[in-house]
């Protein structure tokens, strides 16, 4: 029986703003080493000898970014399934289970969020072997993280009777207050709820049908007509949206009589906030984590990240300072959980800083904002070798392109021509145009836009290699 990782790639990571943004969330960021959290999750699973190629479940916006990150680590997924919208983990895992059963008699699913850190891979793999063996006997297994402190930010699992290297799940407990967390920590009966699961696809779907028949029915309908879009699988949008939103914990694990918990002491963190990232990061002699071009004096117990320029901090304790190209966050370590409120305020105000970085990745490469003002903006555009932007037009803006590196193949109206370094062209509004890189070297241009409206939604696509 195959063992298939199901990597859940949803989530916005709002408490790690300004590094994590809606269109480039924390799972895609290299926060603890040179690889993203997603890449580390996939490679960690691939180290287990029984594990097959992963299935990833993600949304429309992140699909090309996720595919590219897997290509970078040379791991080919079994499938990338697109959710029409986020409906929490119970529906997401159900569509993965249906996809597995479409091609297999059955398989064991290893359900993992894409944004967790696990420092001790060998310990995790040993616990995973235990969980897989238990799942073969039709148990629904979760991992319970051995607490290292009284934590109010996590839910807990109370252990019951011991069963073959694991424990019966006595009950799930909501996030406790401080006094209750201390009480839990002083016993060995409670683990943190990790949100990671191992079970057979068929067992999960049967339990879902018994416990939440409305979700189960919606997912059966959603998976009746699965279509293929390039390297991605799409379920029926209307049926999926008709499903209630619920987590695996609430929908299944809290109600089943076959839940087991495997203790895990492997340096786990969901890095749900800046203080959580600081806690697991390397520190200097003053208990500071300093990333990038940082100079400090009299600073203690702090996390400081400089992304684009020198950041200097003097005489502060217990702070978080994070600098990106377009935003700076300064916060108390003790209020790090409240960063989400800043993101909510930015969203209410219609600010793009909660959604995009200044550098915005696309399947063909990226563009980066350089300058903006009344009726104009300047972008730097990088096009990967062999890649092409869509054939498109804009109603409200004209564009000037200047090639600064590489060779551009340009379509304007019915004319196709090449531009070399230091050459330029002009595209009037209401004119079909396309930018291509047909060479084996990266293409970089500077684009100057001018017009009465410069929004990214002013675009009409006629042909597109990426099905957008």
Give a brief rundown of this model:
The protein has 468 residues and is of the alpha/beta class. The protein contains eleven helices and 30 strands.
Structural account:
With 468 residues, the protein is α/β, with parallel strands linked by helices. The chain folds into three domains: 2-269, Alpha-Beta Complex (Spore Coat Polysaccharide Biosynthesis Protein SpsA, Chain A), CATH 3.90.550; 274-343, no CATH class; 359-463, Sandwich (Jelly Rolls), CATH 2.60.120.10. Helix content is 23%, strand content 35%. It has eleven helices and 30 strands. The strands form seven sheets. Strands 20-21-22-29-24-27 form a six-stranded antiparallel beta sheet, with no helix packed on it. Strand 10 (227-229) and strand 11 (232-234) form a beta hairpin. Helix 6 packs across helix 7. The longest helix is centred in the N-terminal third of the chain and has 16 residues, at 121-136. The chain is globular. The two termini are 37 Å apart. The relative contact order is 0.11. The model has no long low-confidence stretch (mean pLDDT 96).
* Class by alpha and beta content: alpha/beta
Distance from first to last alpha carbon = 37 Å
Q: Give the percentage of residues in beta strands.
A: 25-35%
Largest sheet: 6 strands, antiparallel
Please tell me how large the radius of gyration is: 24 Å
Low-confidence stretches: none
Q: How many structural domains?
A: 3
Number of helices: 11
């Amino acid at each position: 029986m195959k063992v298939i990782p199901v990597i859940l790639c949803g989530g916005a990571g709002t408490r790690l703003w300004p590094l994590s943004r809606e269109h480039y969330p924390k799972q895609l960021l290299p926060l603890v080493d040179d690889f993203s959290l997603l890449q580390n999750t996939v490679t960690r699973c691939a180290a287990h000898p029984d594990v097959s190629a992963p299935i990833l479940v993600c949304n429309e916006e992140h699909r090309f970014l996720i595919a590219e990150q897997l290509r970078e680590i040379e791991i080919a997924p079994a499938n990338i399934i697109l959710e029409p919208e986020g409906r929490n983990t119970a529906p997401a895992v159900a569509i993965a289970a249906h996809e597995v059963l479409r091609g297999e008699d059955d398989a064991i699913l290893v359900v993992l969020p894409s944004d967790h850190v696990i420092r001790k891979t060998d310990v995790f793999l040993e616990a995973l072997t235990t969980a897989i063996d238990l799942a073969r006997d039709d148990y629904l297994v979760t991992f319970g993280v051995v607490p290292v402190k009284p934590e109010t930010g996590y839910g807990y699992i109370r252990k019951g009777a011991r069963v073959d290297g694991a424990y019966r799940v006595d009950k799930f407990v909501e996030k406790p207050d401080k006094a209750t967390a201390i009480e839990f920590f002083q016993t060995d009966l409670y683990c943190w709820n990790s949100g990671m699961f191992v079970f057979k696809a068929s067992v999960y779907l049967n339990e879902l049908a018994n416990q939440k028949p409305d979700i189960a029915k919606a997912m059966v309908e959603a998976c009746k007509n699965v279509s293929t879009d390039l390297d991605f699988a799409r379920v029926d949008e209307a049926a999926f949206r008709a499903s209630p939103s619920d987590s695996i914990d609430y929908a299944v694990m809290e109600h089943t009589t076959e839940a087991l918990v495997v203790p895990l002491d492997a340096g786990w963190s969901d890095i749900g906030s800046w203080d959580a990232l600081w806690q697991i990061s390397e520190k200097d002699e003053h208990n500071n984590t300093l990333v990038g071009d940082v100079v400090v004096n009299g600073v203690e117990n702090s996390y400081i990240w400089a992304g684009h320029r020198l950041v200097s901090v003097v005489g502060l304790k217990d702070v978080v300072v994070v600098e990106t190209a377009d935003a700076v966050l300064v916060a108390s370590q003790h209020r790090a959980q409240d960063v989400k409120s800043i993101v909510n305020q930015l969203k209410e105000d219609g600010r793009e800083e909660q959604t995009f970085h200044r550098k915005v990745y696309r399947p063909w490469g990226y563009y980066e904002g350089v300058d903006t003002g009344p009726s104009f903006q300047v972008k730097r555009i990088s096009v990967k070798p062999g890649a092409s932007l869509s054939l498109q037009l804009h109603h409200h803006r004209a564009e000037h392109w200047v090639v600064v590196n590489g060779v551009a193949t340009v379509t304007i109206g019915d004319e196709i021509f090449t531009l070399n370094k230091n050459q330029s062209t002009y595209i009037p509004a209401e004119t079909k145009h396309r930018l291509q890189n047909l060479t084996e070297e990266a293409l970089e241009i500077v684009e100057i836009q001018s017009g009465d409206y410069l929004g990214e939604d002013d675009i009409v696509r006629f042909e597109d290699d990426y099905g957008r």
